[in-house]
Specification:
The chain has about 230 residues and is of the alpha/beta class. The protein contains ten helices and twelve strands.
Amino acid sequence: MRIGVLGTGNMAQALATHWVRAGHEVVIGGRDAHKAERLATRMGGGARPAGLRAAAESGQVVLAALPFGAGADVARELREALAGKVLLDCSNPLGPGFRLLTEGGPSAARRLAEAAPGAHVVKAFNLCHEDVWRMRPPVFDGRPLAVPVCGDDEAALVRVGELVRDVGCEPVAGGGLDRAGLLEATAALFIALWVAEGADAQAIAPPLAYAAGPGHGGEAGGAAAHG
């Protein structure tokens, strides 16, 4: 698969390194040519540096590894180059105090889709720190990490599912792009629990067999289900 990467930061390096190892053609794009070249050299495996537009044009899948706010601006600049491509968004729109900056408005993923309306935007890889994505593979207590994936285009979801597996994880269907905001809100909650409270966020969810309670046949619990 041909993968273009927009950005030269930690998430770009962590994810794209797995994809280079898996044999994909990766082009690292950045505004700073020296940073792109350093990152591509560090990754090896035939990864190539380029500008942002060249990276977008090269990929069947384009990873937007950019800060919230910058992502939509770059997507708008590159909208023609992104047309028909899978645009993979891993950003988290968080502000001071782990506040969700998109509260009351479109999700970060939806803003990318509005900026590049010809692209197939998929939300994934936003729930973990980049050091988790650097693991080979991210396995905890013998279980591969599950990665929720949200998007509207089936072919795009299949491609992203392949890239999730190349990282050593298992994709989980998270619904359409309208649910991407829930993933971003989950990240805001989890990061606040981990960092501010020192809590084990993974421990807040029971195993699947107990999620609905005994004898409920899979119905959801909580106030939404029981009033």
